[in-house]
Amino acid sequence: MGQILAIDYGKARCGIAVTDDMQIIASGLDTVETRFLMEFLKKYFTENKVNDVVVGLPIDLKGNISEVETDILKFIEEFQKEFADITVHRLDERFTSKMASFFISQSGKSKKKRQEKGLIDKVSATIILQNFLEQRIR
Q1: H, E, C per residue of the chain
Q2: pTM, full prediction
Q3: Are 21 and 128 in contact (CB under 8 A)?
Q4: Number of other residues whose CB lies within 10 A of the CB of residue 101
Q5: Domain at 103, CATH number
Q6: In whole angstroms, how large is the CA radius of gyration of the chain?
């Protein structure tokens, strides 16, 4: 069994999270500048077995798709050409950034560390992945 990787895709940077090989635990992996995302994934996939990728679906509180979705769809198209054997899943990412900020604030990290956007992106990706794992179990 291989890992599942989640991406909290953003215009400037993407948070990345992965499961263990048994697909039980979601952990934050890294934050990558969006322009280097494919390069990062190519390297990661050569070193690790990944079966599935979960990409956040940016929906606002009114149920509208965010404008970054256009970029996400282009990324997914490019991803599927490069990694045809890896299944891509989408998952509603509403509230993940707010939840990430809350969890970080509860962790005892310094105010400067809590405001670090890269950390929020990585924790958001972890929340997306954890939600995906929980939905799979149901």
Answers
A1: CCEEEEEECCCCEEEEEEECCCCCCEEEEEEEEHHHHHHHHHHHHHHCCEEEEEEEECECCCCCECCCHHHHHHHHHHHHHHCCCCEEEEEECCCHHHHHHHHHHHCCCCHHHHCCHHHHHHHHHHHHHHHHHHHHHC
A2: 0.84
A3: no
A4: 16
A5: 3.30.420.140
A6: 14
pLDDT at 65: 86
Task: Tell me the pairing of strands 13-19 and 3-8.
Answer: antiparallel
Q: Which residue has the tokens 């769809």?
A: 73
Report the domain count for the chain: 1
* Residues with pLDDT less than 50, the chain: 114-115
Q: Under 8 Å CB-to-CB from 116, ≥6 apart: which residues?
A: none
**Domain around 130:** 3-137
Neighbours of 78 (CB within 10 A): 12
First to last CA, the chain: 20
